[in-house]
Amino acid sequence: MDELLEQFLIEGPEQVQQAGEALLALEGRPDDAALVDQAFRAIHTLKGSVGLFDLPAMGQVLHVAEDLLGAWRDGRQALSRGAMDALIAATGQTERWLGVLAATGGGLPADADAVAADLVSRLSRALDGDAPVPAAVQATHIDTAWIEALFRDRDLDPARHSMVTALRYVPDAGCYFRGEDPIALTRAVPDLLALRISRRDAAALVAAQAHDLGAYDPYACDLVVELLSAAPPEAVRGPFRFVPDQIQLLSWSPSPSPSVPVPSPALAEGPRSLRVEAGRIDALAQLVDELVVAKNALSDLAGQMADGLAPQAAAQILGDRQAALDRLVGRLHRTVMGIRLVPILPLLRRFPRVVRETATALGKEVDLAVDGQDVQVDKAIVEGLFEPLTHLLRNAVDHGIEPAAERAAAGKPARALISLVARREGDHVVIDVADDGRGMDPARIRRAAAARGLLPDRMLDALTDDQVLDLVFRPGFSTAEAVTDLSGRGVGMDAVRAAVGRLGGSVGISSASGQGTTVRLVLPLNLVLTKVMVVAVAGERYGIPMDGIVETARVDPDRIRPIRAGRAFVLRDTPVPLLSLAALLGLPEEAPVDGGPCRAVVARVGGDLVAVEVGAFVGRRDVVLRPLTGLLSAMPGLLGTTLLGDGHVLMILDVPGLIAAAPGDTAPVGQGMP
């Protein structure tokens, strides 16, 4: 990817974030001039950066947004709800376009021009009432009549000029004061085929011809430059690289095929970049130096052994140097983890606009409180959290928050509150999404689950209210009575759990009727190194993350009791259902050797203890977890893979996800055990 575009894709989202935060804050403090100036400067910087690339749709939107903010800043226009809605929509769309650019490395999506035209129209109405969109910011594919006229008036031969570059340049009125010379820029265009320079304002032209100098301002530029060139678009754009927001550039053919904006050059695969403090890089370089010394020490030992060093002495020296290498690898791991850690707060600050847009669409008033200061997590965690958090927040606004009349009847303020809080607990980060809405009704969830056949009636009746709430994470579950653009399509919460599971985390839910709902996400601080318990079953080895294991147990056969369709045993006065890992994985069952004890891993699923029988405990390992890709990425019960020292691939299991995906009659929770 082009280095300039890569840098823009790093800084662009930051500018969008600054503008969005300032706009949202302005709703509560409309007279705060500093906030207006912050939003203006962010949009202005974005517009200038966009102009360095061939992104006309984005440039058009930002151009008019800057004009609107400039009118506020200069006191020429008062703040209005319609203008604020248009500006927030513009920043949101800009953020989405930046996401597309980062993901594809190419141009904007096919509907960018149409989307831009709609946003420009909204912004222009907010700025000038119902005035038409200025010609300088119209979508480039709309106005081609001037190109056809130039081609025809200059009697150009279509056979010789089957494809030309067309440029329309509308200089800023104050360009003379900045030392800009529109004519000089025009003269620098190579391979010029046709040129027309006219006046922007026809009324001013008539007044000047009538020698009415009072109606003509010689210090303000009102020229319009239109030209055709045989040179490629990149060469024509060159002289105007510092005024990109004042030009339209198209590749045009006289054939019947429609004109199209010039696409950006084909770019390589999207950027993954990370800003790192110089001190961390220095520390990493120092560790590399020490590792080189440790490597040389092993080479020296190999030479001594070749010269006849006694095996016992060699073993002792090797053990010492292996211990030193272990310490270095541990320090290296911690240093690399520190490099990958990034603040989570910038991610959380993206969501107030999401909540506002959702609430506006539903006719609700909702505030979002964000807190996550000083919390840092792995960059991959931050990148993977946007979609699940977006769904949780939209779900809270749509389903959790009551209409204003219902809130008033319950004695609640009309304006609801949702909190998004991140905090660190040990080696994990905990994120709570909490609302002060109506809460969740377990009885309604039971009815919906029964109607969809998610569980047999006897099992539903045996579930506690907390266990019933966990049913919302089942695939296909929904209590929505109508399908909307935001929810009610029978997908969502199961996708949230799957997305968080792929990050090595878990999701839980709690609710109080009439008081609100809290969804809690618990995730590891990093995804690079994971401690796992390696188990064997049916001749295969699998890994289970240690942070998901409560304990391991060896259970004598006489302690295991049949319970309905399953098995259970009592662990310290607590009945625990016993499942077979082989059955969960679809592998042949194995009986304990010589009738010996059953080996089981005890995990917590949905607030309850569940034991999973395995064939053998192989040991513990620190492994590098590689997330699944392709078709396997959506498979429930699998977190990823790792490569063992003997070259074999080890599958890392998500035990709660594996159990949740099991058939209903094998579900371990709520089986009515005595």
Q: What's the topology here?
A:
Elements (H helix, E strand, L loop, with lengths): L2 H26 L4 H18 L5 H18 L7 H24 L7 H17 L16 H9 L10 E6 L12 H6 L4 E8 L2 H8 L13 E7 L3 H5 L9 E6 L7 E2 L16 H29 L4 H30 E3 L1 H4 L2 H12 L3 E6 L4 E3 H22 L3 H6 L6 E10 L2 E8 L6 H10 L5 H6 L2 H5 L23 H10 L3 E7 L3 E9 L4 E9 L2 E6 L3 E7 L5 E3 L2 E6 L2 E7 H5 L12 E8 L2 E7 L1 E9 L1 E2 L10 E6 L5 E5 L1 H6 L14
Parallel strand pairs: 7-9, 14-24, 18-20
Antiparallel strand pairs: 1-3, 1-4, 2-3, 4-5, 6-8, 9-10, 10-12, 11-12, 13-14, 13-21, 15-19, 16-17, 17-18, 19-20, 22-23, 23-24
Helix pairs in contact: 1-2, 1-4, 2-3, 3-4, 3-5, 4-5, 10-11, 13-14, 14-19
Q: How confident is the prediction overall: mean pLDDT?
A: 79
Structural class: alpha+beta
Instruction: Report the CATH architecture of the largest domain.
Output: 2-Layer Sandwich
Instruction: Report the β-strand fraction as a percent range.
Output: 15-25%
Structure description:
The model is unreliable at 130-142, 202-213, 255-270, 482-491 and 665-674 (pLDDT under 50). The protein has a 6-stranded mixed sheet with strand order 21-13-14-24-23-22. The protein has a 6-stranded mixed sheet with strand order 15-19-20-18-17-16. Helices cover 41% and strands 22% of the residues. With 674 residues, it is α+β, with helices and mostly antiparallel strands. The protein contains 21 helices and 24 strands. It has 4 domains: 3-128, HPT domain (Four Helix Bundle (Hemerythrin (Met), subunit A), Up-down Bundle); 145-201 and 220-252, Alpha-Beta Plaits (2-Layer Sandwich), CATH 3.30.70; 342-479 and 490-524, Heat Shock Protein 90, CATH 3.30.565.10; 529-661, OB fold (Dihydrolipoamide Acetyltransferase, E2P), CATH 2.40.50.180.
